[in-house]
Amino acid sequence: MGSERMEMRKRQMSAQQETSAGGAAPAQQDQPGQGSRGSNACCFCWCCCCSCSCLTVRNEDREERTRKASSDVKTEGPTDCDDSPKPTVEDVRSWGQSFDKLMHCPAGRSAFRQFLRTEFSEENMLFWLACEEFSKETNKSAIEDKARVIYEDYISILSPKEVSLDSRVREVINRNMLEPTSHTFDDAQLQIYTLMQRDSYPRFMNSPVYKNLFKSLSEQSPEC
């Protein structure tokens, strides 16, 4: 009887050991799955890092293109009239004949720009000059970059150098900015040109800037 109990006890212990071994196996089988999940997590992290790196490169490239476009959108010549090409008395006299003659003369544009600065409207000349340079651009990529710079500098309502344009012209520019061309700002440039001609030009002709320059050159000319 005692031997039968011992034998039964051994069988029970043997069965418990088999059950324990069977339960542990699935846990061990789960380990490869855990390793796979860890591998997938690593792959996910790598993809995220790669995407972020590519996005950073693209952003840096865009910023570099914008900086280059901004430097290429140059205003003409020196900022001070004293450093501009010196006009002759005939040049200065011709400025009084028409606004077109004034704007076609580098020294005339410089003197007029100095006057506009005293009236806090120099941005009109700066915008017109930027459009002149922009209209000569032929490279499509450069056109897009420079158009964005001009828009941000002179068209955006957030810019301190915003020029005064009516709503119709602004709508035209906003449509043109979807696919910029070298003619994107033609209407705006013409409107600012007309504004300077009708508003600022008559005051310039009666200003000390013009009168003193004409008087100085007349005194230096042997013919006068």
Key terms for this structure?
224 residues, mainly alpha, 75% helix
Overall spatial form: rod-shaped
- Contiguous runs where pLDDT drops below 50 for at least 5 residues: 24-31, 75-82
Spatial extent as radius of gyration = 38 Å
Q: What class do helices, strands and sheet pairing give?
A: mainly alpha
Could you tell me the mean pLDDT? 79
Order of helices and strands: HHHHHHHHH
Terminal Cα span: 148 Å
Helix content: over 70%
The share of residues in extended strands comes to: under 5%
In total, the number of strands is 0
Summarize the main sheet. none
Number of helices: 9
Biased composition (Low complexity): 21-32
InterPro entries: RGS (IPR016137), RGS_sf (IPR036305), RGS_subdomain_2 (IPR044926)
Biased composition (Basic and acidic residues): 1-10
Domain RGS: 98-214
Describe this structure in a few short sentences:
This protein is mainly alpha-helical.
What does this structure look like?
- By secondary structure, this protein is an all-alpha fold.
- It contains 9 helices and no strands.
- The protein has helices at 2-72, 89-95, 99-104, 106-118, 122-134, 140-155, 167-176, 186-205, 208-220.
- It is rod-shaped and about 140 Å long.
- 21% of the residues are buried.
What order do the helices and strands come in, and which of them pair?
Blueprint lengths: L1 H71 L16 H7 L3 H6 L1 H13 L3 H13 L5 H16 L11 H10 L9 H20 L2 H13 L4
Helix pairs in contact: 1-6, 4-5, 5-6, 5-8
